[in-house]
């Protein structure tokens, strides 16, 4: 009888320990602990009375954030907000507390992206959820500020251009914009298949350039490339999957 009681006690202890371990395992597999959420996210969110809200959100390891919003169209007004954020009990949703410590915005954290939720913490259903998604910097080629770091095998230096050379592909209107080092350029792009891209109707301003640098050659390359790849935050553009013509690094938009 005494032996039987000892067995029952041992089984009870084992059961309690197993449950505790299981709970610990579940808790550690929420997005807060299992995903690499630290970093910068960007995208263009819907706007009722403007062309869109270009948004960047920097999430830091000390649970502080920097939120930058630019209302596109008109005067392109920009606002910058700093504050702290906290995690909801589900371990998947974070809330921006705002400068006055009030709950401001809710976001669901996913792999390499975050989804802006409504005031009740639910997905926005008035339009596609993709329109409310901010992607992690360097994880996708659209809605990202790409700075040129290498062109036809040559590293880019400040002496090569008057302005920073960059390119950006906007999903809102399928427009590509950028600067070749002196002049601004813009046009359209098509991305019908993964890793495929085609630029069309590229137009460039005609300012007199002190440092013409690689601008003319870059325009020729942009009109000829047909595919891209992204690895470790580096965008590579090439033609017919041959040697890479240009490499760009993902950066926060100045």
TrEMBL record:
Does the entry feature the keyword Acyltransferase, yes or no? Answer: no
- The source organism is Putridiphycobacter roseus
Q: Where is the DUF306 domain?
A: 139-248
Protein's recorded name? DUF306 domain-containing protein
Check the UniProt entry and state the signal peptide residues, or none.
1-20
Keyword Isomerase carried by entry: no
Q: Which PANTHER family does this one have?
A: HEAT SHOCK PROTEIN HSLJ
Which keywords accompany this UniProt record?
Answer: Signal
